[in-house]
Amino acid sequence: xxxxxxxxxxxxxxxxxxxxxxxxxxxxxxxxxxxxxxxxxxxxxxxxxxxxxxxxxxxxxxxxxxxxxxxxxxxxxxxxxxxxxxxxxxxxxxxxxxxxxxxxxxxxxxxxxxxxxxxxxxxxxxxxxxxxxxxxxxxxxxxxxxxxxxxxxxxxxxxxxxxxxxxxxxxxxxxx
Length: 176
Prior knowledge:
By secondary structure, the chain is an all-alpha fold. Among the domains are: 11-46, no CATH class; 114-161, no CATH class. Helix content is 38%, strand content 3%. A hairpin with a 2-residue loop joins strand 1 (34-36) and strand 2. It is flat, with a radius of gyration of 37 Å. It starts with 11 loop residues before the first helix and ends in a 15-residue tail after the last helix. The mean pLDDT is 76.
């Protein structure tokens, strides 16, 4: 024995852990040693198990062990989604549609202010074109590079100038 009364390699935690796991799995745990002279580690009372519907000699599957663990709980709790919704009664006028909010039809794609679309092409396409020039056409003319840079600056400047200048007092700026 060491200074604290137990050898460093002797652990009561391992036996307790094995006993706990065995009780949760519903299997018989066998104590391997005693804690102190004259006192033997014994497992607690085994939980009541339902008789199996099919007799089999194989070890229980993971699903059966999990069912045994959760079936052994004192009270099954019900969550917010564990309730039955009442069936909606049909309306007497026969109108099954909801009279709530109906959004307006969105505008078709490709419509819009042509100048704004051109500004987006310049603002997004300018840096992308400059990146492609840097990777694949290293000796591109300086005039082409400056022209693309000017298109980017013009498109970004136009888009910034189109931003709203003022906000309403209670408006946070979010739009759907």
